[in-house]
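Record 1 of the preview.
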Amino acid sequence: MTKYLNEAEKTELLEVLKVADLLEMLVTDAVESALESAVQGAAEKAERDKTIEIAKNALIEGHSIQSIVRITGLDESTVKLLRSELNIE
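->
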């Protein structure tokens, strides 16, 4: 390496390599964070979908809105919306 580069060029090359390593670490962290977020978001959506399905089944079985709210943790307006979507009076 010293045969082809002078001291200033070696120093500059080492700095560039350090920056490249830093950028690689930052990109890796960003990708891992994005994947983590995506997985967590998918898990939360799956949980909410399951809760909605439980609420719909409870409505079909004739449970009261208040009991469905208490059991599922959904808010009353959501349960009422589900009831109207199912055309249950």
